Amino acid sequence: MAHMTTPVRKAVFPAAGLGTRFLPATKAQPKEMLVLVDKPVIQYGVEEAVESGVDNIVIVTGRGKNAIEDHFDANIELESFLEQRGKTQLLEEIRKITRLIQVAYVRQGEPLGLGHAVLVTKNLVNNEPFAVILGDDVIDARPPALKQMIDVYNRVDGPVLAVERVPMEDVSSYGIVAIDESAELGPGVHRIVDLVEKPKREDAPSNLAIIGRYILTPDIFPALEETARDGSGEIQLTDGLRRLLKTRPIYACEINGVRHDTGNKLGFLKAVVYFAMRRPDLAEPFRRYLESLNLNGH
Ligand code: G1P
Question: How far is the CA of 2 from the centre of ligand 1 (A)?
């Protein structure tokens, strides 16, 4: 009889970071609520999760993150206003996101790193496989990036990390994986033989970078509990995975799609332009505007 994997029903969104790179915009507003065209960054990730079959979201928050909770909650006053004005399309748009998913919140308390953020979801995730989505990495892909990973997970029945080749000069910004080059387990699917968080260029075992999507199994929790803090006092998810690798195979999956790192200003601006150009109502006038800038040289 074919072995059935346990379905991935839950996705964890770490969102407790202070967003210092976007100050002053993030002084009184969570960075996850910064807007790409007309949607907050975190909603792109939540929609990806929903389109990938996930129906439970766990958002890891901290102080000053209330706007995220309000965003994913019903707003009865706004809904009845839109209803009275006959703005049915907008009404559907704002109802869609609250109706499709169940959202739970847990506070991280102290900013002790990504591994710690995952660890605080232990009781909510419980004993089943789950996804981790880092909202800063916005991935435009068909099928959605997480769906591509779930398909791989269903075949390999073990943790799957999304990876992408990056220029060697950028490896120190990422978790980097070394893979078994001798065997590809399907297009872009590899077995991981080592992982290292933000290595110096000369220490990097490859240029395959983890890009903010993980499918994890519950044995990551004890592995993280046993993981030592790094030099800056944080528990790194990459270090926890390195520990887990001693006890089970872990896989890397290259994603077919376009990734934007919206966690830095240039990446954020590129993402705004990219998504604006994919909007039928904006693409043409926006293209004309961009072309006019080129022509005038400013
Ligand atoms: C985190 C992870 C890193 C990963 C990256 C992807 O780093 O620690 O392994 O490659 O996300 O975006 P951060 O960007 O939070 O510093």
Answer: 35
Classify 55 as helix, strand or coil. coil
Q: Which two tokens stand for residue 172?
A: 């120190």
- Give the pLDDT confidence score for residue 298 in this predicted structure: 54
CA–CA distance, 123 with 240 (Å, rounded to integer): 18
Phi-psi region of 220 (alpha: psi -120 to 50; beta: other; left: phi over 0): alpha
Nearest atom within ligand 1 for CA of residue 175: 9
- What's the CA-to-centroid distance between 53 and ligand 1, angstroms? 24
- For residue 165, the CA-to-ligand 1 centroid distance in Å is 14
- Please name the residue ranges forming H helices in 131-264: 145-156, 220-225, 237-244
Report CA torsion sign: 232, 236, 240, 242: negative
For residue 86, the CA-to-ligand 1 centroid distance in Å is 44
**Candidates 3.40.190.10, 3.90.230.10, 3.90.550.10, 3.60.20.10; CATH matching 10-16+24-279:** 3.90.550.10
With both helix axes pointing from N to C terminus, report the angle between 41-51 and 145-156 in degrees, rounded to the nearest 10.
40
Q: Whose CA is nearest to atom 15 of ligand 1?
A: 114
Residues of the chain below pLDDT 70: 1-3, 294-298
Question: CB of 176 within 8 A of CB of 210?
Answer: yes
Are 137 and 211 spatial neighbours (Cβ–Cβ below 8 Å)? yes
- Whether 239 is in the pocket of ligand 1, judged by its Cβ within 6 Å, is no
* Secondary structure in 3-state letters for 198-224: CCCHHHCCCCEEEEEEEEECCCHHHHH
Provide the pLDDT for residue 295: 64
Number of H helices, E strands in the chain: 11, 13
Residue 19 Cβ contacting ligand 1 at under 6 Å: no
Answer yes or no: is the C-beta of 234 below 6 A from any ligand 1 atom: no
Cβ contact 15:63 at 8 Å: no
Structure tokens at 187: 């297009």
